[in-house]
Design brief:
Low-confidence stretches: none
Number of helices: 8
Structural class: alpha+beta
Order of helices and strands: HHHEEEEEEEHEHEHEHHEE
Oligomer: single chain
Distance between the termini: 29 Å
Length: about 230
């Protein structure tokens, strides 16, 4: 299946978030009333549900891109089995996928909120969901924190991508055409941008980068001192 352009996915999420803050702000934070923080918001699930409604409306604007796909909240199935990471059952907050076609795993989103904003476990799950060599292979993953302010919410976006290592290398090197990059520097940038992870969720080692460089010699040129550049 052809991967849907990231700009479309990012636009869908952004528009849905705008509608959430426009129409359902009281779920996120009740203003102008003296309440304890615990009483100033609804449950996270209520927010995710409303976000899903707005996202579903956005999907209808791209009928050719989302044919035979489903938008589900806390969907814990993998075909007819249970979704698991590290042998633990998981319930992703929101996904766009096909329930019985693993080649249409498009987007997985994990939500946190201003009153519960630790994203460590979510990010670990998103690495597993988007890893190119993994079981699920979602095209895109997103960790976000619903803040009281929409600007801060969008600033919290942390995207994860499903790329092969050599494609991740190409993306980074295309942005550094003015000079070659050291293999270790390239590995660090790929990991920082969440473009590729090893099976255990850690970054690719520089020797893996060099190996890909040799295996795709039509794409990359190996220079002295473990430096790499794209071939012209």
């Amino acid at each position: 299946m052809h991967k849907i352009d990231f700009n479309i996915i990012n636009k869908l999420v952004g528009n849905s978030l705008n509608n959430l803050f426009k129409s359902d702000k009281e779920l996120i934070n009740i203003e102008n009333i003296a309440l304890d923080d615990i009483n100033k918001h609804a449950a996270e699930r209520s927010i995710v549900f409303r976000f899903g409604i707005y996202l579903n409306e956005e999907l209808k604007k791209y009928p050719d891109h989302f044919t035979d796909t489903n938008l589900d909240v806390e969907y814990n199935r993998y075909n007819y089995d249970i979704k698991k990471v590290d042998e633990k059952s998981i319930f992703p907050d929101l996904i766009i996928h096909s329930r019985h076609n693993q080649d249409k795993n498009i987007l997985v989103v994990e939500f946190k909120t201003w009153w519960n904003n630790n994203t460590y476990d979510d990010e670990k799950k998103l690495k597993a969901f988007t890893r190119n060599s993994g079981k699920f292979r979602y095209d895109y993953g997103l960790s976000l924190i619903i803040d009281k302010d929409i600007k801060k919410t969008k600033e919290s976006f942390k995207w994860f991508f499903n790329y092969t290592l050599h494609n991740a290398m190409k993306i980074i090197l295309q942005e550094h055409t003015d000079k070659p990059m050291h293999a270790d520097e390239l590995a660090n940038e790929i990991y920082k941008r969440n473009l590729y992870f090893k099976e255990d969720g850690t970054k690719a080692e520089y020797n893996q980068i060099r190996a890909r460089c040799n295996n795709y010699s039509d794409m990359f040129e190996a220079l002295s001192g473990n430096h790499i550049k794209l071939k012209e």
